[in-house]
Design a protein that fits this description.
By secondary structure, this protein is mainly beta. Helix content is 0%, strand content 54%. The chain has strands at 3-7, 10-13, 18-25, 32-39, 45-52, 59-60, 68-73, 78-83, 92-100, 107-108, 112-117. It is globular, with a radius of gyration of 13 Å. It starts with a strand and ends with a strand.
Length: 118
């Protein structure tokens, strides 16, 4: 049974930083890809970033490039999303997700709220 648990959300001011964490239990291998998505109020869930469990092949959405960094700590079974220079437009529920190479993201965490005020 794969379980993903996010943490680290909160309320901050524009320009501040936050680090989200997602701890994974079960289901990881060299073929695993971890992703971060976000869903703003009234909008669809969108891709933010992804990384292979091997650490190779990090991808980012254009809207957050240069501000967000995704990383992983295999020893802790945890992936992180370091978010710097936060903007009000970054306000959303952030979800961690898992897939295997070639497959869809089919495991999801419960989400963590990030609120950025101006």
């Amino acid at each position: 049974q794969v379980q993903l648990v996010e943490s680290g959300g909160g309320s901050v001011r524009a320009g501040d930083s936050l680090r989200l964490a997602c701890t994974v239990s079960g289901g990881t291998s060299i073929r695993t890809v971890m992703g971060w998505f976000r869903q703003a109020p009234g909008k669809e869930r969108v891709f933010v970033a992804s990384i292979r469990w091997s650490g190779i092949g990090t991808e980012y959405a254009d809207s957050i490039k240069g501000r967000f960094t995704m990383s992983r700590d295999n020893a802790k079974n945890t992936v992180y999303l370091q978010m710097n220079s936060l903007k009000p437009d970054d306000t959303a529920v952030y979800y961690c997700a898992l897939r295997q190479i070639g497959g869809p993201f089919d495991y999801w965490g419960q989400g963590t709220q990030v609120t950025v005020s101006s």
